[in-house]
Amino acid sequence: MNGRLELEEKIISPIEEWKGHPDIFFVARDVPVLDDDPHIWLSLRNLKIMTQAISRHLSVQATPLLNRIQRLDERFQELFSRMPGKAFLCLHPAWRYFARDYGLEMISVLGYNGEVGPGRLARIMEECRKKSIRFILVERQFNRDLVEPIIQSCDLKVIIVNPLATDIVGEFSRIAEALEGVVDENR
Fold first, then answer.
1. Which of 16, 52, 110, 186 to pair with 62, CA 20 to 30 A apart?
2. Contacts by 66-74, CB closer than 8 A, 24 or more apart
3. Which residues contact 132 (CB under 8 A, 6 or more apart)?
4. What's the per-residue H, E or C state across 96-125?
5. Is 151's pLDDT higher than 80?
6. Hey, what domains does the chain have and what are their CATH numbers?
């Protein structure tokens, strides 16, 4: 738990009041939070901080996982250094930490209120062209049909992602593999 987000404040009090509550520790105390954005696990750098905290708290060895996270982080750095555009599109605005880590601009189709109209879609299509956006992250939990006009109009590579995957490091590895194709197409 991060200990600073509104969502956590709502759930921690009832847990602490529960007699015999589990050992609670703040796994992400040292993770820099972006404007109360709860999607802290969608950053390999944040995952590294959280893994180190868990390792210390539970006195377990996490070197193999930390090495895997580090290699993936370096792979993304290398991929994005070769990509001409520094912006990407996503359906849901959950990828701000990922964008921050690699100096990218995240453009979300859905705003935080979830509303999308024809005017917004047209503006996003124009931004995709101006910023040479080549891919869109579409969470499998959302309906792709909403962004199909943008995908077709801008010829975007669709990367289906699962931000709720139980193996989030494996999910990042899959995303990196998909991005290889996007970078290679632009050579």
1. 16
2. 68/169, 69/44, 69/169, 72/44, 72/169, 72/172, 72/173, 72/176, 73/44, 73/45, 73/48, 73/101
3. 84, 85, 87
4. HHHHHHCCCEEEECCCCCCCCCHHHHHHHH
5. yes
6. 84-185 (3.40.50.1980)
- Give mean pLDDT, residues 130-142: 93
- Bridge partner list, 106: 88
Q: What is the pLDDT of residue 17?
A: 67
Question: pLDDT tens for residues 84-129?
Answer: 889 999 998 999 999 999 999 999 998 755 567 788 889 999 999 9
Cβ atoms 136, 92 nearer than 8 A: no
pLDDT score at 118: 82
Contact predicate 104/88, CB 8 Å: yes
Size of the chain in residues:
187
Structure tokens at 50: 């959280």
Instruction: Tell me which amino acid residue 130 is.
Output: K
User: What is the model's pTM?
Assistant: 0.85
d(CA 185, CA 82): 11
pLDDT in tens, 99-108: 999 999 999 9
3-state secondary structure of 18: coil
